[in-house]
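Re-running L-xylulose reductase to confirm reproducibility after the cluster update. Everything else is unchanged from the original entry.
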Amino acid sequence: MSGVLDGRTALVTGAGKGIGRACALALAGAGARVIAVSRTPADLEALAAEAPGAIEPWIEDVTGDALPSRIKALPRLDVLVNNAGTNRLQYVLDVDDATLDMLIALNIRAAFKVAQAAAAAMVAQGGGGSIVNISSQVGHVGGPRRTVYSMTKHAIEGMTKSMAIDLAPHAIRVNAVAPTVVETPMTAPFFKDPAYREAALASIPLKEVLQPEDVAGAVLYLASPAARLVTGSSLRVDGGATAM
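Result of re-run:
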Protein backbone atom coordinates (compact mmCIF):
# COMPACT_ATOMS: atom_id res chain seq x y z
CA MET A 1 0.00 0.00 0.00
CA SER A 2 2.95 2.28 -0.67
CA GLY A 3 1.83 5.87 -1.25
CA VAL A 4 -1.80 5.48 -0.20
CA LEU A 5 -1.30 7.89 2.69
CA ASP A 6 0.94 10.40 0.93
CA GLY A 7 0.49 13.89 2.38
CA ARG A 8 -1.46 12.67 5.41
CA THR A 9 -0.65 12.97 9.09
CA ALA A 10 -1.12 10.05 11.47
CA LEU A 11 -0.70 9.85 15.23
CA VAL A 12 0.04 6.58 17.03
CA THR A 13 -0.02 6.21 20.82
CA GLY A 14 2.05 3.55 22.54
CA ALA A 15 4.36 3.72 19.53
CA GLY A 16 7.59 2.75 21.25
CA LYS A 17 7.18 -1.01 21.14
CA GLY A 18 5.10 -3.89 19.84
CA ILE A 19 1.87 -3.16 17.98
CA GLY A 20 2.24 0.63 18.15
CA ARG A 21 5.73 0.52 16.71
CA ALA A 22 4.63 -1.76 13.86
CA CYS A 23 1.69 0.54 13.11
CA ALA A 24 3.90 3.62 13.04
CA LEU A 25 6.29 1.97 10.57
CA ALA A 26 3.44 0.68 8.40
CA LEU A 27 1.83 4.12 8.18
CA ALA A 28 5.17 5.75 7.43
CA GLY A 29 5.77 3.15 4.73
CA ALA A 30 2.44 4.10 3.18
CA GLY A 31 3.56 7.73 2.92
CA ALA A 32 2.17 9.29 6.10
CA ARG A 33 3.95 11.72 8.37
CA VAL A 34 3.69 9.89 11.68
CA ILE A 35 3.56 11.44 15.13
CA ALA A 36 4.76 8.68 17.45
CA VAL A 37 3.72 9.01 21.10
CA SER A 38 5.51 7.19 23.91
CA ARG A 39 6.86 7.85 27.39
CA THR A 40 10.25 6.33 26.51
CA PRO A 41 12.69 8.58 24.61
CA ALA A 42 15.06 5.73 23.68
CA ASP A 43 12.23 3.78 22.01
CA LEU A 44 11.18 6.82 20.00
CA GLU A 45 14.76 7.54 18.93
CA ALA A 46 15.14 3.97 17.64
CA LEU A 47 11.81 4.18 15.83
CA ALA A 48 12.64 7.50 14.18
CA ALA A 49 15.98 6.11 13.01
CA GLU A 50 14.19 3.28 11.23
CA ALA A 51 12.02 5.65 9.18
CA PRO A 52 14.20 8.74 8.65
CA GLY A 53 12.22 11.92 8.10
CA ALA A 54 8.83 10.23 8.52
CA ILE A 55 8.54 10.04 12.32
CA GLU A 56 7.97 12.95 14.71
CA PRO A 57 8.56 11.76 18.29
CA TRP A 58 6.30 13.05 21.06
CA ILE A 59 7.36 12.12 24.58
CA GLU A 60 4.01 12.14 26.38
CA ASP A 61 2.03 10.17 28.95
CA VAL A 62 -1.39 9.37 27.47
CA THR A 63 -3.00 9.51 30.91
CA GLY A 64 -1.98 13.16 31.38
CA ASP A 65 -3.78 16.32 30.35
CA ALA A 66 -1.04 17.65 28.05
CA LEU A 67 -1.47 15.17 25.21
CA PRO A 68 -5.15 15.86 24.38
CA SER A 69 -4.44 19.60 24.32
CA ARG A 70 -1.47 19.06 22.04
CA ILE A 71 -3.52 16.88 19.68
CA LYS A 72 -6.34 19.44 19.47
CA ALA A 73 -3.81 22.08 18.45
CA LEU A 74 -2.57 20.12 15.43
CA PRO A 75 -3.16 21.95 12.13
CA ARG A 76 -3.80 18.63 10.40
CA LEU A 77 -4.62 15.10 11.54
CA ASP A 78 -5.92 12.40 9.23
CA VAL A 79 -5.38 9.17 11.18
CA LEU A 80 -5.33 8.22 14.86
CA VAL A 81 -4.16 4.79 16.00
CA ASN A 82 -5.38 4.69 19.60
CA ASN A 83 -3.10 1.93 20.77
CA ALA A 84 -1.72 2.66 24.25
CA GLY A 85 -2.98 0.19 26.83
CA THR A 86 -1.93 -2.54 29.22
CA ASN A 87 -3.07 -5.69 30.98
CA ARG A 88 -2.51 -7.34 34.32
CA LEU A 89 -3.64 -10.94 34.68
CA GLN A 90 -5.58 -11.53 37.90
CA TYR A 91 -8.24 -13.96 39.04
CA VAL A 92 -11.44 -12.03 39.59
CA LEU A 93 -11.46 -12.43 43.38
CA ASP A 94 -7.86 -11.20 43.57
CA VAL A 95 -8.34 -7.96 41.63
CA ASP A 96 -7.10 -5.08 43.77
CA ASP A 97 -8.18 -1.46 43.54
CA ALA A 98 -4.84 -0.29 42.19
CA THR A 99 -5.08 -2.68 39.23
CA LEU A 100 -8.72 -1.83 38.61
CA ASP A 101 -8.08 1.92 38.65
CA MET A 102 -4.93 1.67 36.51
CA LEU A 103 -6.58 -0.37 33.75
CA ILE A 104 -9.66 1.86 33.66
CA ALA A 105 -7.52 5.04 33.61
CA LEU A 106 -5.29 3.87 30.76
CA ASN A 107 -7.44 1.53 28.69
CA ILE A 108 -10.71 3.49 28.89
CA ARG A 109 -10.32 7.07 30.11
CA ALA A 110 -7.09 7.87 28.28
CA ALA A 111 -8.29 6.11 25.12
CA PHE A 112 -11.47 8.18 25.15
CA LYS A 113 -9.67 11.48 25.81
CA VAL A 114 -7.18 10.84 22.98
CA ALA A 115 -9.94 9.84 20.54
CA GLN A 116 -12.03 12.85 21.55
CA ALA A 117 -9.08 15.19 20.99
CA ALA A 118 -8.29 13.64 17.62
CA ALA A 119 -11.92 13.97 16.55
CA ALA A 120 -11.90 17.64 17.59
CA ALA A 121 -8.80 18.26 15.47
CA MET A 122 -10.36 16.49 12.48
CA VAL A 123 -13.60 18.45 12.77
CA ALA A 124 -11.68 21.74 13.09
CA GLN A 125 -9.87 21.08 9.80
CA GLY A 126 -13.18 20.56 8.00
CA GLY A 127 -13.83 16.89 8.68
CA GLY A 128 -12.57 13.66 7.26
CA GLY A 129 -10.27 11.19 8.94
CA SER A 130 -9.92 7.72 10.39
CA ILE A 131 -9.75 6.72 14.04
CA VAL A 132 -8.61 3.17 14.74
CA ASN A 133 -8.95 1.95 18.32
CA ILE A 134 -6.86 -1.08 19.30
CA SER A 135 -9.21 -3.46 21.08
CA SER A 136 -8.77 -7.20 21.71
CA GLN A 137 -10.52 -10.49 21.07
CA VAL A 138 -11.60 -10.28 24.72
CA GLY A 139 -13.58 -7.22 23.72
CA HIS A 140 -15.90 -9.80 22.12
CA VAL A 141 -15.51 -12.81 24.43
CA GLY A 142 -14.26 -13.47 27.95
CA GLY A 143 -11.03 -14.95 29.22
CA PRO A 144 -9.57 -16.42 32.41
CA ARG A 145 -7.84 -13.89 34.69
CA ARG A 146 -8.90 -11.14 32.30
CA THR A 147 -12.08 -9.77 33.90
CA VAL A 148 -10.91 -6.17 34.14
CA TYR A 149 -9.00 -6.19 30.85
CA SER A 150 -12.00 -7.71 29.07
CA MET A 151 -14.24 -5.08 30.66
CA THR A 152 -12.02 -2.28 29.34
CA LYS A 153 -11.91 -3.71 25.82
CA HIS A 154 -15.69 -4.20 25.74
CA ALA A 155 -15.80 -0.49 26.60
CA ILE A 156 -13.56 0.28 23.62
CA GLU A 157 -15.86 -1.70 21.33
CA GLY A 158 -18.88 0.28 22.53
CA MET A 159 -17.02 3.57 22.29
CA THR A 160 -16.04 2.75 18.72
CA LYS A 161 -19.62 2.13 17.61
CA SER A 162 -21.05 5.23 19.25
CA MET A 163 -18.25 7.53 18.10
CA ALA A 164 -18.74 6.24 14.55
CA ILE A 165 -22.37 7.37 14.67
CA ASP A 166 -21.62 10.76 16.20
CA LEU A 167 -18.78 11.54 13.80
CA ALA A 168 -20.29 10.22 10.57
CA PRO A 169 -21.70 13.67 9.64
CA HIS A 170 -18.10 14.91 9.66
CA ALA A 171 -16.90 12.06 7.39
CA ILE A 172 -14.75 10.72 10.23
CA ARG A 173 -14.62 6.94 10.32
CA VAL A 174 -14.13 5.11 13.63
CA ASN A 175 -13.22 1.42 13.77
CA ALA A 176 -11.49 -1.07 16.04
CA VAL A 177 -8.95 -3.82 15.49
CA ALA A 178 -9.32 -6.76 17.86
CA PRO A 179 -6.30 -9.09 17.89
CA THR A 180 -5.76 -12.28 19.78
CA VAL A 181 -2.58 -12.51 21.85
CA VAL A 182 0.34 -11.02 19.92
CA GLU A 183 4.01 -11.87 20.31
CA THR A 184 5.56 -8.59 21.45
CA PRO A 185 8.42 -7.62 23.77
CA MET A 186 5.86 -7.67 26.61
CA THR A 187 4.54 -11.17 25.84
CA ALA A 188 7.77 -12.72 24.52
CA PRO A 189 8.73 -14.21 27.92
CA PHE A 190 5.40 -16.05 28.05
CA PHE A 191 5.92 -17.55 24.61
CA LYS A 192 9.27 -18.99 25.71
CA ASP A 193 7.23 -21.38 27.87
CA PRO A 194 6.34 -24.33 25.57
CA ALA A 195 3.11 -24.95 27.50
CA TYR A 196 1.98 -21.34 27.03
CA ARG A 197 2.78 -21.40 23.31
CA GLU A 198 0.99 -24.72 22.87
CA ALA A 199 -2.12 -23.43 24.68
CA ALA A 200 -2.11 -20.24 22.59
CA LEU A 201 -1.85 -22.16 19.33
CA ALA A 202 -4.58 -24.57 20.43
CA SER A 203 -7.00 -21.63 20.61
CA ILE A 204 -6.13 -20.37 17.10
CA PRO A 205 -7.52 -22.38 14.14
CA LEU A 206 -4.87 -21.01 11.76
CA LYS A 207 -2.17 -22.28 14.17
CA GLU A 208 0.06 -19.23 13.93
CA VAL A 209 1.01 -16.78 16.65
CA LEU A 210 0.21 -13.19 15.68
CA GLN A 211 3.04 -10.75 15.11
CA PRO A 212 2.70 -6.94 15.50
CA GLU A 213 2.88 -6.58 11.71
CA ASP A 214 -0.31 -8.65 11.36
CA VAL A 215 -2.19 -6.08 13.43
CA ALA A 216 -0.50 -3.19 11.60
CA GLY A 217 -1.77 -4.53 8.28
CA ALA A 218 -5.36 -4.36 9.51
CA VAL A 219 -4.80 -0.87 10.89
CA LEU A 220 -3.33 0.30 7.60
CA TYR A 221 -6.37 -0.99 5.72
CA LEU A 222 -8.79 0.84 8.02
CA ALA A 223 -6.72 4.03 7.81
CA SER A 224 -6.64 3.95 4.02
CA PRO A 225 -9.13 4.98 1.31
CA ALA A 226 -9.70 1.26 0.68
CA ALA A 227 -11.93 1.33 3.78
CA ARG A 228 -13.72 4.57 2.88
CA LEU A 229 -17.20 3.23 3.77
CA VAL A 230 -16.13 1.10 6.75
CA THR A 231 -17.08 2.62 10.09
CA GLY A 232 -18.38 1.35 13.42
CA SER A 233 -16.76 -2.03 12.76
CA SER A 234 -14.34 -4.22 14.66
CA LEU A 235 -11.86 -6.19 12.59
CA ARG A 236 -10.84 -9.34 14.46
CA VAL A 237 -7.25 -10.34 13.71
CA ASP A 238 -7.32 -13.54 15.69
CA GLY A 239 -6.59 -16.45 13.39
CA GLY A 240 -10.17 -17.59 13.84
CA ALA A 241 -10.02 -17.77 17.66
CA THR A 242 -13.39 -16.11 18.26
CA ALA A 243 -15.02 -18.29 15.58
CA MET A 244 -14.60 -21.37 17.78
